[in-house]
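Folds vary. Our protein:
___
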Amino acid sequence: MKEKVVLAYSGGLDTTAIIPWLKENYNYDVICCCIDVGQGKELDGLEERAKYCGAEKLYILDVVDEFCDDYIVPCVQAGAVYENKYLLGTSMARPLIAKKLVEIARKEGAVAICHGATGKGNDQVRFELGIKALAPDIKIIAPWRLNETWKMQSREDEIKYCEDHGIKLPFEADSSYSRDRNLWHISHEGLELEDPSNAPNYDHLLVLGNSPEKAPDEAEELSISFEKGVPVALNGKKMKVSDIIKELNILGGKHGIGIIDIVENRVVGMKSRGVYETPGGTILMEAHKQLEELISDRDTFAFKKVVGSKFADVVYEGKWFTPLREALQAFIESTEQYMTGECKMKLYKGNIIKQGTTSPYSLYSESLASFTTGELYDHHDAEGFINLFGLSLKVRAMKKAAAENDNN
């Protein structure tokens, strides 16, 4: 019997060309695995296509709820944003995909896992760190890094390679953006975006919704309810996390929410420019932030920002299956125990406008915050506090003045 390789299969041109390439260069039986993280692509016909190209079988795994509950929710709770903009849409999905590839490899007794990520991108790092952490004994094959056997450098090359191997496919050498999509977001790279001096062509580019300029003139209000930091209801209707994100994607896309244009620093050292659409995710992150500022104490709120930034770096770099990620998440989860309440917002032409936040664990006290004197706070108490709080400043100024007098 031949040895087996599991291929991360999307059904697109790249992974379709990899099937005959693997058989030709490794003489493996190819087991294709398509991980559905909510990319919205049509999955009908994938099995026939994979087998037509030479695969022994195809697994299609629906992991949308696992993606939402175990990967997206922790990032929302952390407030994890990479380089102040990127909401980690692709980054969050890769460790889950790696995990499922390993599970199928174990089930099939495969000796290798193959992915189609290029040698310049972040995904090769994310996939391979995940595989190494979960299955260090399994070989990893990355065709785009194998110059001696992988000769294809363009879509035209891949189409010709397939045709030379008797595979005629409905793919064309088009000039579209390079995109990655899942339930959380869609990314766009290439074409005019490769030059940072160019403005994005939003009329051609956007997939999930409108630009703010083309959003409706009428605002739309909504509410999101959380229990222990987990979104549980939209507009008062109980829903699972994946359904809340789906609905928020529709609402946010309609109103031009969550479109960012970023030049980011990739893990491999280069800068890259991309446009990300994250309509539902942007709304969800903002709602959680509004709840957090109402409930968290000052010190925890400040340190949580540091932890959230580090958590974002860890996820972006593909280090999900690490002790550090687990430790950071343990801290984050401890801060979420009282993160229960409702956030009301208004969506209008790319903006998310607060409409009120409530929680049974709110630390806001109207009697304390008002200008009147209450039982818990006497205005005169501030004088002693300021004297102590500014003591070092006063001593420094006095010493500086004395030294200057001595010199004169």
